[in-house]
Write a structure and sequence with these properties.
Blueprint: E1 5-10, E2 20-25, H1 34-43, H2 45-56, E3 68-72, E4 80-85, H3 96-113, E5 117-120, H4 132-145, E6 152-157, H5 160-170
Parallel strand pairs: 1-6, 2-4, 2-5, 5-6
Antiparallel strand pairs: 3-4
Bound molecules: adenosine-5'-diphosphate.
């Protein structure tokens, strides 16, 4: 098992080329805003169809926070989308374990699929309001600490501020 190389870019994750693109989904798996909306828009209806099939079978109640599941990537330049549900940030409860679980479980699914390059957004830092510094630390520490056959993990940061936070940690 070689060590994973971590890279980071600023941009739109739906424009990336990778074996797997990770979606910051919600537990319904039926689409939402942010990255989720962008992935379904650019990836086309095949992704939603696959998500509906998951809801009709193994994931009748949806996908739990911290878990991950793969579907086709539709028209994206990737083989799979790995959907994971980040925690909504809470001031009164430490949910860092759930956020770490998103990265760990996504890498576990990537390994099952045989994905060698995986693009991640900054899970939970949008609508779910996780503080960016904490989210970046958890993301990077978890990827570094998870044994995986994935060769490249690429963080794709949409806005300048999030990019800078990851760059300070990785650059
Ligand atoms: P969550 O509900 O997990 O917070 P969001 O999609 O709202 O998920 O936001 C997660 C992060 O993804 C935020 O930093 C947001 O700016 C970023 N983001 C939004 N659209 C894109 C995109 N097309 N590509 C990459 N990152 C994106």
């Amino acid at each position: 098992m070689t060590t994973v190389t971590i890279t980071f870019v600023q941009g739109d994750i739906t424009r990336q080329s990778a074996d797997a693109i990770v979606n910051a989904a919600n537990s319904s798996l039926l689409g939402g805003g942010g990255v989720d909306g962008a992935i379904h828009r650019r990836g086309g209806p095949a992704i939603l169809e696959a998500c509906r099939a998951l809801r009709a079978s193994r994931y009748g109640k949806g996908l739990a926070t911290g878990q991950a599941v793969a579907t086709t990537a539709g028209e994206l330049d990737a083989r799979w989308v790995i959907h994971t549900v980040g925690p909504v940030w809470s001031a009164s409860e430490d949910r860092s374990g759930l956020l770490a679980s998103c990265y760990r479980e996504s890498l576990r699914v990537a390994d099952e699929l045989g994905a060698r390059t995986v693009a991640f957004p900054a899970i939970s830092t949008g609508v779910y309001r996780y503080p960016k510094e904490d989210a970046a630390r958890i993301a990077v520490e978890t990827v570094r600490g998870t044994p995986t056959a994935v060769e490249e993990v690429r963080f794709v940061l949409f806005d300048e501020e999030t990019y800078e936070v990851f760059a300070r940690r990785l650059g």
